[in-house]
Amino acid sequence: MKRNTRIATVVTAGALAVGGVLAVGPVTADAGGGTVPVAARTMSPGGPGYGGHRTLGHGDDALGMRRHDGTCTGTGLAARGTLTAAQKTTLAGMAEEEKLAHDLYTAFAGRYDARVFAHIAAAETQHLTAVRTLLDRYDVTDPTAGHQAGVFADPAVQATYDRLLKEGDHGLDAALKAGRTVEDDDIAALTKALPGLTAPDARQVYGRLLAASERHREAFDHWIADE
Question: In this structure, how many other beta carbons lie within 10 angstroms of the beta carbon of residue 15?
Answer without folding.
Answer: 18
